[in-house]
Amino acid sequence: MPSITRRTFLQATAGLATASLVPQAFAQSAQGLREYRLKAAKSNLRLAPGPFPETPIWAYNGTAPGPAIHATQGKPVRIIVENELDEETSVHWHGLRIPNAMDGVPHITQPPIPPGGRFVYEFTPPDAGTFWYHPHTHSLVQVSRGLYGPFIVEEPDPIRVDRDITWVLADWRLGPNAQIRDNFANPRDFMRAGRIGNTVTVNGLVAGRFVAWANERIRLRLINAAEARIFSLRFMNLKPRVIALDGMPVPPYHPDGGAVLLGPSQRADIILDMTGEPGSRTAVVDGFQPQQPYELIEIVYSYAPPVRDNLLGDLIALYPNPVPEPDLAGAVTHEIRLEGGDLGSLSYALVDGEKKGRAEMLMMNKMWAINGVANMHMPHEPLIRLKRGSTCVLDFRNLTVWPHPMHLHGHTFLVLEHDSRQTVGRLLDTVLIGGGESCKVAFVADNPGTWMFHCHILGHADAGMMATIHVA
Ligand code: C2O
Ligand code: CU
């Protein structure tokens, strides 16, 4: 069998796959309550063309990404999660500001769901926007094997578009026979940029094809579900306008250089006016590694005449979500030092309450620390305790040479200062802090409970870059 490279995939799959919609789950609605069922189980996905076998994956309802869950802002939704894996799991609703008991963090907000067990999540999303779900138990392994899906909260009064489309970006590390390589505990990945794969998919398809109609307007919801890969998406001759980041509306803008940057777990909603000629083609290219740009997906225009003579007008701004405004005058500031990794200067940290040197840490697969503490994914002393209703400023210093997408559960923060200027003034749940950068964010601690605060490069989180913030 030939060995798998990206090129083989691209050649073999070019023109075969047509992307595609995320599968829809069945929602029953009884008295306005939407109900979904998610079953986590083993499945298969065709990631490499024949003669390669299908790739065994873990998936929700048999597919990766799992079904799109649709809720309406301010309306309750119930999701029944069944675990048919051989190990524990739990589901986290990334970016949703919901009660702590529904947050899906094992041992901290709920007991893990045992094999054969189930858990019923029920909550009312306060914010409209693009979110996603994924396990928070053995996340590095479970997400890398295919467990994730979109969570779309619809505006009661949406903007006018022809199509509302979601692209879930994922990254797989495949071995020579198209199986997922199971070297999850690889110190080189832990210490550096995380587990970067060799096969990128959009909605489960490698180098797929997207069919567009001339002059239509698309709302494209981009979700980076990759364990570690950062994307910088270029839309060639199209001019994307960003209307939301991490589910939170922004005044519409053309991103710098036309590229949409997405760190692990981040989302962007963009408006694409499909200005190409009928029958023409273009592509979306990921240029995050400038030496190795590659085509993520091909866009092919139908030969049909344009859907309208002129493009739709400029009414694309979304209504803001009800995120409380930080009181900066009365804020408490906490410095957050991110340390460790390859080429870093971390010489010791507290692991499980004990001071460990670098070599000892390495043996325990711990390479990162937040304020000198490398946590396990288990109950631990909160890094910060906040009074409910108070404003907190997190003053980040990334003392490593690696980027870290830092994520806080249960809250949305406002970026006050950041060396990468593009994020200033944005409301995010994950901020991508480059090596050596500083960044300041503020949020109102209005949601009581113990909330995870971690790097969303899941290998980094596993290797110590994880903490909790307690609000009471
Ligand atoms: Cu996607 Cu702890 O989060
Ligand atoms: Cu990190």
Give a nutshell description of this structure.
With 472 residues, the protein is mainly beta. The chain has helices spanning 6-13, 139-144, 187-191, 358-363, 458-462, and strands at 28-30, 33-45, 55-60, 69-72, 77-83, 91-94, 118-123, 129-135, 149-154, 163-172, 199-202, 205-206, 208-212, 217-224, 231-234, 241-245, 248-253, 259-262, 267-273, 281-286, 294-301, 332-340, 348-351, 354-357, 368-370, 373-374, 384-386, 391-398, 404-408, 413-418, 427-428, 430-433, 438-444, 449-455, 466-471.
General description of the model:
By secondary structure, this protein is mainly β. The model is unreliable at 1-20 (pLDDT under 50). The strands form seven sheets. It has a seven-stranded mixed sheet with strand order 12-11-10-14-19-16-17. A six-stranded mixed sheet has the order 25-22-28-33-30-31, with no helix packed on it. Strands 1, 2, 3, 5 and 7 form a five-stranded mixed sheet that branches. The chain is built from five helices and 35 strands. A hairpin with an 8-residue loop joins strand 30 and strand 31. The chain binds CU-O-CU linkage (C2O) and copper (II) ion (CU).
